[in-house]
Amino acid sequence: MDGTNCSVRIQPPRTCRDTATTERGVALKPVISVLTPGGLAAGAGRAGFSRLFGTNVWCTVGQTVHSVAGRTIIGACAVLTLVSITCAADQPGIVISFSHSTPDTAYWRRHASAIQKRPFDGVVFEIDPRDETWLEEGYWDKQIDWARSRSPEYDYLAEMYQRPRELGSLSWGGGSGLTFSGATSPWNPASRYSEATLTRALEDLQAAPADHFRFNLLGIGVQAPTTDWFNEEQFEQRLQNFVVLARFARDAGLRGFLFDDEQYGSGCVWNYPVLKNRGATHGHSFDEMRATAREHGRRIGAAICCRVS
Asked: pLDDT over 90 for what percent of the chain?
């Protein structure tokens, strides 16, 4: 598989913690903060920090990892979370905008100048989910019908699916964008990312280069069907998806990814008891599954670093 033989040295992640302290009790100071509607993620009450790859980048680990009942697979998320912004480790005080009103690439193309007047150092991008290149014809028409059947709660989504792509949007945030939606996220092994998938998004970002915002990221989530950590064929597809996205990030001038490890919807990623009840553990113990998850995280992290660094 492309990307698995890269000579990138990566140190195993340390255990995630609920408190912002090291083993010696020294308080940690994140060098990169992501501003959300709920405040600075780095200051969240249950935020855990994990040092990645022996660098000085510290990042928050999603609250779901700490709050889900039962044992959770932590470690793989730490390997992936914000892996590609290690290049900003020597730039303290970076604040990046990320919220439900995150711009997609087409919106950025039309309004980049206005967006960069805001007091941030970067933004997290979404991509129009209709840019996918593998779903059956008529899929989005069915999504419109589904959203309308749940009026008025999802009226906005029906409108989004009918909105001309070139107008762009601030409304894909919250789990509907290409790399967040359960139907199209790179974590879903049914997704088949290729350069053709990202051609239009790349054209958008190259047509409106960032001048003030120097720390821009692509948001990626784990919405997908229940994860089978021992299915090598599915993992290889995930790896290939991330390889394609890493090339996109490099070519678009992005610093990398903001990896949102919170699981949404009915799919399960991290919770071992739930995975066991769904027959996804195949008789393996928690420790065996955690070791497999960490190894997968290291392989994806290495593939990303080979292309974004």
From this structure: 61
